[in-house]
Amino acid sequence: MLRYIFKRILIFIPTLIVISLLAFMISINAPGDPVERMLTRSQGSGEQFAQVRNTIEQKKIWTKRLGLDLPVFYFNISNAATPDTLYKIYSPTEKYALQRLIGQYGNWKYISAYHQALQHLNIGYDNLIADSVTINRFGKNAVVDAMNLSKSDALSLVSAYEENIIRAKLNGLKSIYSQFSFFAEQQIILNDVIAKYETVTTNKTTWKNYIPAIHFYKNNQYHRWIFGDGNWITGKNSLYCRGIIRGDFGLSYQTQLPIDNVISERLPWSLTFTIISVLLAYLISLPIGIKAAAKKNSMFDRTSSVILFILYSMPAFWFATLLLMTFANPHILQIFPASGVQPVIGIPEDATFFERIKLYFPYLILPTICYTYSQLAFLSRITRVSTLEVISQDYIRTARAKGLSEHKVIYKHAFRNSLLPIITVLSNILPLAIGGSVILETIFTIPGMGKEIFFAISNKDYPMIITVFTITGILTLIGYLIADILYAVADPRISYK
After folding, report:
1. Is a pLDDT exceeding 70 seen at residue 40?
2. What is the CATH architecture assignment of 259-490?
3. I need a surface site. Which of 64, 357, 371, 401 has the fewest CB within 10 A?
4. Are 227 and 236 in contact (CB under 8 A)?
5. Which residues of 28-39 are buried (b: 16+ CB within 10 A; e: fewer)?
6. What predicted TM-score, i.e. pTM, was given to this entire model?
């Protein structure tokens, strides 16, 4: 058995790698810009150029914090014209424009020089101030319009790749600069930009686009996502990320809080209701299913089937609302609280364990009933069918022929051998716990994972969604391993070698 468990754990490793790769691929290809979502924009009034520069600086900070200034994977297959440092340019539109220029001209050396000149042109606006003579001559509005229009054209050049558009914007800037004397320094930089763009267009080496090239990267986004940005073995010196192997799943787009903190607050409630409801469902449905199989087609069998299937057919939201209207209604029976999981004033810090249970207990009754009732029919029918199949076996008839009591035949011989399908169902408890129940948690105002996942999907909080996906895969593997072990415990004929 130990050897089998060790082999299964070894098999888990490639499976977990595949799960992590799938989760990572989904995260990097998710719609939207993570930096834009996480960016805290400057508030209040201020000069337009100062706000733009502040936004750019914040983007750089968030890009570094999220690890988006790193290459995506351990290697990249491209061509000889594309440099191995293109990943450092995070802006999607800017990077796309450079890729198009590379595809058109294939001379990264000159394209890079042209791109750097554009950066200098945009930086030049930071300290640009119109003199009083120009303002008096042309008017403040005309000067401001000229600055805004030229700034907009200069910024758009970074994302432009079509030759006719680039030349039109360069000519437009040249025309604006020639009208106002305070653009003198910008005119010098613009002349350099024009010269370098001409160098790009006159020195084509498009043949480089057809030569494949492989670039390898030691530090990359996937490695950082798995192991963190510190020591990949010990996790020391981690600055922004400790890696998912240490329980760090990054930041939530919605709250900008660590996802592991959010899960540690939400998961216990979903896990509590799931475990309690499953235990109750098994304790109730197993005896019913066994007795129904032992007394096939009897009044008990038919009556229990009808009652359980009636419960099974009732929608959870309708049954939950019915319970609240009946047992949490001040006009009928106000026995239980209508919502929440604890008193409004909270739980006293000095409360003992039993005092805490007493305070929590009234809030757990109605949700637990709703979590449990729908599982009874399913589990009891599985138990009944499995037990009927075992009862028809020869060794059961032999046990009866030896004079064993019916109770001993059913519960000692038949029941144990009919547990395999029930164990299979039991293996799904762990992955179900991470999902919670959106409907019931909403109706009863339970701060569980169901509501959190619903909000994550509604608000496109992809890190939270990817985290749930990854944890669900891991818990599924653990559930299957536990099921395999329980198979051998329930049936001695099953042997793992």
Report:
1. no
2. Orthogonal Bundle (1.10)
3. 401
4. no
5. beeeeebbebbe
6. 0.75
